[in-house]
Amino acid sequence: MIDHKSTQRQVDIKIKKQEERWWDRLTLQEKKPLFLGPDFDRWLDESDAEMELQTKEEKINKISVESRIRKDPYVGLKRGYLFVYNLVQFLGFSWIFVNMTVRLFILGQDSFYDTFHTMADMMYFCQMMAVFEVINPLLGLVKTGFVPAMIQVSGRNVILFVIFGILEEMQNKPVVFFVFYLWSTIEIFRYPFYMLACIGTDWELLTWLRYSLWIPLYPLGVIAEAVALVQSLPIFDETRLFSLPLPAVLGHSLSFSYILQLYLVIMFLGLFFNFRHLSKQRRRRYRSRKRKIH
Ligand SMILES: CCCCCCCCCCCCC[C@@H](O)CC(=O)SCCNC(=O)CCNC(=O)[C@H](O)C(C)(C)COP(=O)(O)OP(=O)(O)OC[C@H]1O[C@@H](n2cnc3c(N)ncnc32)[C@H](O)[C@@H]1OP(=O)(O)O
């Protein structure tokens, strides 16, 4: 016995173990006397100890990450830049989404046919800005992989600038509506999620939407883009726009539509690659959250 204290209700006895190991019971005999009981406020078993160890490890990791972050003198500037970038993109895509939704309610199906003329300028702006999504990981500003970002940005820009932007015949087709609507639906959740990440916070519902909405939206988006591409093929065949000159023995020229058909295959490979990337991000996010909750 190393210490004891008597109160009106009980006698508290502190004893020190000779050897540091887990005890199966308090007394030598199996049945413990009724008057004897452990202090459950101080009770620890193997799983509690493991948790304590884990919490300590997490604290140490946090401190080391924080000290590394503190060493970077530009961290505030970087966060500020990312916050503004995400805010601008959020406002741009929200403008597109809200406008398209309102027009759909007012004009019904008629709104499908002039989506391009009403939304293109803002979409051009947002998608040109999206080039920073490729630059940011290159500069080490965000943890996004360069390849997934490149696939995403260039995939969309081919559709926007080449198929819709250059071919006037495509601009009043309903497919533009579906492509723009699917793109903007994900972005009105993704950018606010990043904005919150910049200020070190997150909302559970927003995080869930960011890491779940892509599951139906990504394949639908690629299907809509593929439809646009297929619809553009006869236009390229007819106009011979961007066709590649060939030697006389091989014919006059190779229609750009053949290149687009090859691109169609690449598009589905891109879908597969990014789908896998986003699944990994989702698993990583929810695995690390579960660990935090335990
Ligand atoms: C001419 C040659 C062309 C060759 C290419 C051809 C390929 C063609 C393929 C075309 C397929 C594209 C189809 C597509 O256009 C269809 C659609 O978009 S449909 C609509 C649905 N779409 C989506 O859901 C995709 C949305 N996009 C994305 O999610 C991203 O762009 C993507 C790069 C795909 C993945 O994102 P990311 O890797 O960034 O995941 P995380 O969100 O988990 O971010 C990782 C961590 O980095 C932090 N981060 C990232 N960006 C920011 C930022 N801007 N500000 C602040 N922080 C940022 C983020 O918080 C994460 O940090 P932590 O891990 O600490 O949480």
From TrEMBL:
The reaction(s) annotated as catalysed by this protein in its Swiss-Prot or TrEMBL entry are:
a very-long-chain (3R)-3-hydroxyacyl-CoA = a very-long-chain (2E)-enoyl-CoA + H2O; (3R)-hydroxyhexadecanoyl-CoA = (2E)-hexadecenoyl-CoA + H2O
Query: What keyword terms does UniProt attach to this protein?
Result: Endoplasmic reticulum, Fatty acid biosynthesis, Fatty acid metabolism, Lipid biosynthesis, Lipid metabolism, Lyase, Membrane, Transmembrane, Transmembrane helix
Q: Which residues form a coiled coil?
A: none
Q: Which membrane topology describes this protein?
A: Multi-pass membrane protein
Q: Name one Pfam family in it.
A: PTPLA
What is this protein's function? Catalyzes the third of the four reactions of the long-chain fatty acids elongation cycle. This endoplasmic reticulum-bound enzymatic process, allows the addition of two carbons to the chain of long- and very long-chain fatty acids/VLCFAs per cycle. This enzyme catalyzes the dehydration of the 3-hydroxyacyl-CoA intermediate into trans-2,3-enoyl-CoA, within each cycle of fatty acid elongation. Thereby, it participates to the production of VLCFAs of different chain lengths that are involved in multiple biological processes as precursors of membrane lipids and lipid mediators.
Please give the name of this protein.
Very-long-chain (3R)-3-hydroxyacyl-CoA dehydratase
Look up the record and report any one GO term of the cellular component aspect: endoplasmic reticulum membrane
Which family does the UniProt entry place this protein in?
Belongs to the very long-chain fatty acids dehydratase HACD family.
Any Gene Ontology biological process: sphingolipid biosynthetic process
- EC numbers, comma separated: 4.2.1.134
Listed transmembrane segments: 80-102, 122-142, 149-167, 179-199, 211-236, 256-275
* One Gene Ontology term of the molecular function aspect: very-long-chain (3R)-3-hydroxyacyl-CoA dehydratase activity
Q: List where in the cell it is found.
A: Endoplasmic reticulum membrane; Membrane
Decide whether keyword DNA damage is in the record.
no
- Biological pathway: Lipid metabolism; fatty acid biosynthesis
Q: What class of enzyme is it?
A: lyase
Q: Does the keyword Transmembrane apply?
A: yes
